[in-house]
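Data availability (excerpt). The following record was deposited with the supplementary files.
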Amino acid sequence: MVMREFKVLFDDEAALTEGTGVSETIHYGRLSFPKAPPGRPWIYANFVQTLDGIVSLLGDEPSGGDLNGIAEDRWLMDLLRAHADAVLLGMGTLREEQRLKRPRDRGPVFRILDEELRQVRARLGFGRERNIFVSAQAEFQMRDFAVFDGELVDVSVVTTREGAGRLQAQGMPHVDVITVDAAGSQVDLRQAVKALTERYGLKYLLCEGGPTLYSGMLTAGLMDEYFLTVAPLQVGRVSSSGARPNMLPDVGWSAAEAARWRWMSCRRVADYQFHRFRRRG
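Predicted structure:
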């Protein structure tokens, strides 16, 4: 596969030279992150959406990979994973991929595939990759999913006390189950991030969603940066599987309440845009 270079359209040079973990890659250029804030990691997200703001087509095309269509976006995902101690995901993302048997019957393992970027990760001083799943009730069988085998990445589940009881009864001690309080019907995400920081000493955490988890992290004040790939598509919200979601399916802020972002950089490959934003305030 021939990788195309990302054409740099804009970089906020002053902001992008801050922090630690500076890497220079042949396709993307320089990438670095600020130091983690006190008591928690620096948390950044990575998503792809259409021009009309849709992040999932649902049905048999539920993931961001069904929207982007280019190898460079997949490579960028690996680049961002290379800079993170761990990847944070909701169980819905894993269930959808397993339902479609992608890439195999028992679903994916969320890990770096590009060998060059594995080397970048090693040079930055990160250890073995870790997938962290968030599930309040944990109503699933870990043996149904390849990621919980623990062969390719370390794996954790953040859940409530009720969920922890279900997982511990399944007898897979290599899966690290972290128990936190519930916030309504969901996991208390502030408590979850605090527990993860204490357990693993996290400095950089990548949130790959889906939208429900991202919405919760944002409203809890836990999102610092946002990498957004904009695909040159318009698809609309109507589908046979229901209304297609945007990034904030359960949020209804006013203009005064809106999350505000600083535009950090923009790159281009063909007709695809690759943006980076940093949370203000």
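Summary of structural features: The chain has one domain: 7-235.
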